[in-house]
Amino acid sequence: MATPPVPGAGMPGAFSGPQAQAGREVNTASLCRIGQETVQDIVSRTMEIFQLLRNMQLPNGVSYHTATHQDRQGKLQEHLRQLSVLFRKLRLVYDKCNENCAGLDPIPMEQLIPYVEDESTKHEDHSLANQLRLASEERREIVEKLKQKNQQLKQIMDQLRNLIWDINAMLAMRN
After folding, report:
1. pTM score over 0.90
2. Residues 6 or more apart in contact with residue 59 via CB below 8 angstroms
3. Which one, of 66, 80, 111, lies nearest residue 6 by Cα?
């Protein structure tokens, strides 16, 4: 189970991707993306470590191959070293994000919601509400008319059924 090298693992503070080419000015959103990728790498490396541990046999008196055991233990040590590097990288990203956000004033959550109530939005909301109410009334009227038409058709069908019944009865009497 060979693992690819961790980008920026040799140099603490080095970031992979176009941010390294753009210089040392990295915005907070890019740092967050790098942090997210680092967390994903940490999770995948941890899963690989657990898989290696699951496949390893404990020396419980059963004969085992020393070379295989040493190879697996070497892979495990390498994964743990890479995991340590990823955690250091995540700490650097975290510290840099905190440093970038240190001067920002905390904004209440209510102000982050993009809702501004002014006369134009009130008017638009009022007109939309009126349109919805009118459409609802129109639908109700159409449904009522449809029910009336269905009732009329039912009465006509009943009358035709009775007429046909009477005609059949007269024809049966004539024979």
Report:
1. no
2. 69
3. 80
